[in-house]
Amino acid sequence: MPSHDVVEAILEDHRRMEELFRTMRNVEADRSAALEEFAHLLIAHASAEEDEVYPALRRYKNVDDDDVEHSVHEHHEANEALLALLEVDDPASEEWDEKLEELVTAVNHHADEEERTLINDARENVSDERRAQLGKAFQHARAKYLESGCGSVENVRKLVASSSA
Fold this sequence. Notes:
Blueprint: H1 6-25, H2 31-58, H3 65-86, H4 94-125, H5 128-147, H6 153-164
Helix pairs in contact: 1-2, 1-4, 1-5, 2-3, 2-5, 3-4, 3-6
């Protein structure tokens, strides 16, 4: 039975993103396929966090609201970096490599910070039972986003446009 703990589910996605970065940095690999998987995963993951996890964490007095706000802001930054990479046509180009590194920086910074703040707070302040409920809700929302093709360049463009409006 897979763990439904929201903390584990989020960390699992972070590790998968790191693996996909390694693939995307490898010139021998199918970088386009790795980017496509990454784009869907990033958008589904962040959207499910914002829908299900962050609002729940705000209710805990030991979870800093500013950390939640900051995480949402970093999701927007990651989306912008993702869009910039999706819009580069040639995965063998120098521009692709540059935009990839900008994306890696944005996502790794966010994941690292989120793990040190919100994830740690959730681990310390949220009961196992509640974390399991949140994990189920997170995974359900994430699956719905993945089914909708949320990482398509058109959808990422819409997300970036709506967050800068």
